[in-house]
Fold N5-carboxyaminoimidazole ribonucleotide mutase.
Amino acid sequence: MKKVAIIMGSDSDLPVLKPAVKMLAELEIPFVVRVMSAHRTPAEAADFARNARAEGYGVIIAAAGKAAHLAGALAAQTILPVIGVPVKSSTLDGLDALLSTVQMPGGIPVATVAIDGAQNAALLAAQMLALSDGELADKLLAHRQKQHDSVAAKDAKIDI
Ligand code: RP5
């Protein structure tokens, strides 16, 4: 199975990425977690993205806060799908990171999820990999069913 790379701009982003780590582990998708910065370690970030496809990665999740250029900088170096997670780590509550991540120029797409939306980033990565992996598709369908059943159970129990 193709691997997923979770790249974050700083180790201070890790708490926000935990739901993505948990989801990928639950779906038994191989992944790595790395700290690489578009601004502080630009050469390492570019090298990683350039080599990622050859090294067996299928999707890159890139999380950063403030002037969040990481997802775009990685996307510029690869044709792998890059999912951007804007991180709420500034006085602007993540709106700065959201706009920096989502407003890519034409030609270099980044699939941006919500501010701190790490769980959806992992699910979206899994859905991409599931296009060519029936077993993973079945796990995603089971996850949806579980989610459905949990909400339906709450609906049945509501008491006002
Ligand atoms: C961004 O700046 C990082 O992604 C992080 O969200 C934020 C703060 O980084 P640190 O100063 O905590 O390393 O580049």
The first helix runs from residue 14 to 26. The chain has one domain: 3-133. The beta strands are 3-8, 31-35, 57-65, 82-87, 111-112.
